[in-house]
Design goal:
Elements: E1 5-8, E2 15-18, H1 47-62, H2 67-70, H3 74-77, E3 90-93, E4 96-99, H4 101-107
Antiparallel strand pairs: 1-2, 3-4
Length: about 120
């Protein structure tokens, strides 16, 4: 395990730890879907800004998805993870998990349960 680095967020300028800080030698940002690259000249984002950037990118992608496009979508091709992220894969409403379109797209098929955010 390497020593985490203290970095400054290129968006909000907050200090945060970055680097291989887990026993699996991976950074916290590796728990998020690999859906974008930081633009050249920018450094890492703090956890809050990174999550917001992921949510924005995913929401923009979801707006382009039609039921026909959902059948062969980009989310299905990403590495599979067991980690669900609140705000990206689901939100909680009245104590219940509500799965978002991104979660359904990652799964790759409709489950037939008439889910609120089903893109199929």
């Amino acid at each position: 395990m390497s020593t985490p680095k203290t970095k400054i967020c290129s968006s909000c300028e907050a200090a945060f730890s970055c680097g291989d800080i887990s026993p699996e030698n991976k950074c916290w940002c590796n728990d998020y879907p690999p859906i974008f690259n930081l633009s050249e000249g920018n450094d890492c984002l703090c956890p809050a800004c990174f999550k917001e950037a992921c949510e924005d990118k995913i929401d923009a992608y979801i707006e382009t998805v039609t039921p026909k496009k959902a059948l062969n979508n980009k989310a299905m091709l990403l590495p599979k993870t067991d980690n669900l992220i609140e705000g990206i894969d689901y939100y909680i409403e009245n104590g219940n998990y509500v799965f978002k379109a991104w979660f359904h797209l990652k799964r790759g098929t409709c489950c037939g349960n008439n889910c609120r955010h089903c893109p199929y």
